[in-house]
Amino acid sequence: MKKHTHIALILAFVGGTSTAWSSEPIQPISPVKEINLAQVELGKKLYFDPRLSKSGFISCNSCHNLSMGGTDNLKTSIGHNWHQGPINAPTVLNSSLNLAQFWDGRAADLKEQAGGPIANPGEMAFTHTLALDVLASIPAYVTEFKQVFGNADINIDQVTQAIAEFEKTLVTPNSRFDQWLLGNKDAITADELAGYNLFKESGCSGCHNGAAVGGNSYQKMGLVEPYKANSPAEGRVAVTGDEADRFKFKVPTLRNVELTYPYFHDGEAETLTEAVNIMGRVQLGKKFTKAENAKIVAFLKTLTGDQPSFQLPILPPSTDRTPQPKPFE
Amino acid sequence: MKKHTHIALILAFVGGTSTAWSSEPIQPISPVKEINLAQVELGKKLYFDPRLSKSGFISCNSCHNLSMGGTDNLKTSIGHNWHQGPINAPTVLNSSLNLAQFWDGRAADLKEQAGGPIANPGEMAFTHTLALDVLASIPAYVTEFKQVFGNADINIDQVTQAIAEFEKTLVTPNSRFDQWLLGNKDAITADELAGYNLFKESGCSGCHNGAAVGGNSYQKMGLVEPYKANSPAEGRVAVTGDEADRFKFKVPTLRNVELTYPYFHDGEAETLTEAVNIMGRVQLGKKFTKAENAKIVAFLKTLTGDQPSFQLPILPPSTDRTPQPKPFE
């Protein structure tokens, strides 16, 4: 039945006929399709495995916590030896929809991203080689990698591929806003709809659009008015070397934004109210009234979708041959 | 069918008739009974919620990781600001069977234990009052506490009660050894059975007995030969003030011991082989041969039971009123 509706909508869209959402700047999140389930199950374990860090304490899930909107809900993250990270951890939810990964887009995709934190001295502080030594010492992992990838040896390409495949499953369909887009006019309130209209009319949807409501372009933080930042992050110039890219960051997704506080690349906005005010001012040259702000915030909260739901993975134990974690060295 | 067998065994036991395990020093782990499911579901969220720590980064699950045998698999734990803990984190699995909690038994039960790490400056570094402020600012928690406990206000007694009730569910029945105890003679190999017999004959089961294979007495570490420790932990004397209790620790459970490395209160034994050798020497005055040691280790690995299996909890989001975490202060 659902499938049928879906096909009908696609046909309508292809045919150019106006449907519930074909004329909107935001499209519904699609459930996961065409996934390698064996890679997903392996990647889920790796995502939760702190043995990919030098300390044996930090996993992907430490800073991209799937109990908390795929973030750590901290201004900037805590890394190895309690290192204070330079930037806010972006949510892993729906990150497969991003045009590139990291705030400055320095990784082309999730697979490339996944290798970064493992080897970052201020994050997991390990090396790819040492992480592979750990995995290769654990028979259950060796068997599972062999089953999934067919090779005799575990390599970093497989590790990041499996993590990325798991991350592709972390989409959040079925938000109230998506229900509305798909035709259920009662799914959002009049105030929330008014907020959405304000969001469009004010120009927010100029950058926050598409299925992820963002994630598909780089934009300068402080377009109309300079953004005063204490953060050392300089944006996409660090990748391109082009001064025009200074303070350009990937536009973050607004999906599940109710869960992914605090906001901006520096985490300086603690609340959605604050974030909407600042965005209005520095990006659009607008001062929203309190009532307007409240409506936009109400709309933003309709973007919270079904959170990924799965059994907590049980990790295979280390063996006598497994290199020991070194948390205090 | 299974229920029927169970009843039959109980009847046999009550009647004094010898059953598969009535004459053994180890009893099977029972599945959870008589649990308050609403408290369990609330407690599960609290167990995974890092907002009970000052940093917003450390939860119960950080050091008692349910993906890793209910431990952190570190020699000693990492606390707030990367503080190096003084002692090895004991497993939360089957901890409801312990005669008391912590290595020195300073908490009478799980409920009393649960409040400790939250307020310990070297662990979660928070206060009970601040933790309650956080919870009270989150409407979904307020509603759930009201549903579960009926009171208008959240108090620490309810927080620790819910966490303890969740922890009571963390039992691990159905290990191969328990299957053997319950009559399936093929559940363990001849070598594993030989290891069990050695375990009994050598005196290990003098302390490691009962359903938890430990956890039911305090014993001096270094009974026959002094145990050389670098650890500051002085044992139960810290609780009783009685010099006779110096270096007396709660005998740890050996359930899931394959998963709960490294071993001893100081985490100094990295492998089961090493732990069995040291225990033999300092507790029993015995030097196991390599073959004997291997058999005992093989037996110990039959004590790995079904790990608790549940959906990763999704935590209710903070609100504008929620006090901010302070990881770097």
Topology of helices and strands:
The structure is a homodimer of 329-residue chains.
Chain A (H helix, E strand, L loop, with lengths): L1 H13 L22 H12 L11 H4 L46 H10 L8 H9 L2 H11 L6 H13 L7 H6 L8 H12 L16 E3 L16 H4 L7 E3 L21 H13 L5 H11 L29
Antiparallel strand pairs in A: 1-2
Straight-line N-to-C gap of chain A: 58 Å
SSE order of chain A, as H and E? HHHHHHHHHEHEHH
CATH superfamily of the largest domain in chain A: Cytochrome c-like domain
Helix content of chain A: 25-40%
Query: What's the structural domain tally of chain A?
Result: 2
Q: Strand order of the main beta sheet of chain A, please?
A: 1-2
Task: Give the integer mean of the pLDDT values of chain A.
Answer: 93
Oligomer description: homodimer
Number of helices of chain A: 12
The largest chain-to-chain contact, stated as pair and per-chain residue counts, equals:
A-B, 42 and 42 residues
Strand content bin of chain A: under 5%
Structure report:
2 copies of one chain form a homodimer. The first copy, chain A, has a two-stranded antiparallel sheet with strand order 1-2. Chain A has helices spanning 2-14, 37-48, 60-63, 110-119, 128-136, 139-149, 156-168, 176-181, 190-201, 237-240, 272-284, 290-300, and strands at residues 218-220, 248-250. The first copy, chain A, has 12 helices and 2 strands. By secondary structure, the first copy, chain A, is mostly helical. In chain A, 36% of the residues lie in helices and 2% in strands. Chain A has 2 domains: 37-168, Cytochrome Bc1 Complex, Chain D, domain 2 (Orthogonal Bundle), CATH 1.10.760.10; 176-303, Orthogonal Bundle (Cytochrome Bc1 Complex, Chain D, domain 2), CATH 1.10.760.10. The model of chain A is unreliable at 1-18 (pLDDT under 50). Chains A and B meet through loops of A and loops of B.
